[in-house]
Amino acid sequence: MNQYRGFLGTVEQTSDFTTFAARIYKVGQPGDGLKAYLYQLDDVQSVWIPVTGVNSSTVVPAESILSDDRGGLAVFKFDPALKARRGPYMIKIYRTGSPDDKNYYRLYHKFQNRMES
After folding, report:
1. What residues are paired with 38 via a beta bridge?
2. Which residues, in sequence order, are CB contacts of 109 under 8 Å at separation 6+?
3. pLDDT bucket at 5, cuts 50 / 70 / 90
4. Cα 71 to Cα 27: distance, rounded to the nearest angstrom
5. Mapping DSSP to helix (H, G, I), strand (E, B) and coil, where does residue 65 land?
6. How many helices (H) and strands (E) does the chain have?
7. Main-chain dihedrals φ then ψ at residue 112, nearest 5 degrees
8. What is the pTM of this model?
9. Nearest to 74 by CA among 38, 116, 20, 17
C-alpha cells in the first residue's frame, strides 16, 4: 500500500489560499476528522516550512466523508485565507485523531487540487 506523501503545486503569483479539495473515502467508522496543512519552501534552505503560524484548514469531520470506495469530494477551507507567495507549495492532510488500522481514510492521490474563487 502506498503512503500518502502530500500534494505538490506551484503558486504563479502571491495569492490568498482559501480552499483545497481531495477525493477521499473512509473505511470503518473513524470518529475524528481531517485537516490540511500548507507549506512552502524556505527562502534560505531547502526545507518545507509552514506558510504562517496557523497553517491548517478547518476540520473536515468523518461524518461528511463517504464510505463508498469511489470516494467523494472533501473541501478543506483555510479561514482566514493563507497568503501564499510565488513558488512551490505542499499540502499535507492529517487526521485529527490517533492512527487506527480498522477505522481510517483513503485518498485518491490524482484527485486533489487547489480551488480558486
Report:
1. 91
2. 2, 4, 7
3. confident
4. 11
5. coil
6. 0, 8
7. -150, 145
8. 0.88
9. 20
Dmax (CA) for the chain in angstroms is 44
| Residue 45 grid cell | 534552505
Contact predicate 97/104, CB 8 Å: no
Q: Which of 55, 73, 56 has its CA nearest to residue 64? A: 73
Average pLDDT, the chain: 88
Is the pLDDT reported for residue 6 higher than 90? Answer: no
Find, among 63, 84, 64, the residue nearest to 74 by Cα: 64
| CA atoms of 90 and 46, how far apart (whole Å) | 13
Q: Is 93 strand, coil or helix? A: strand
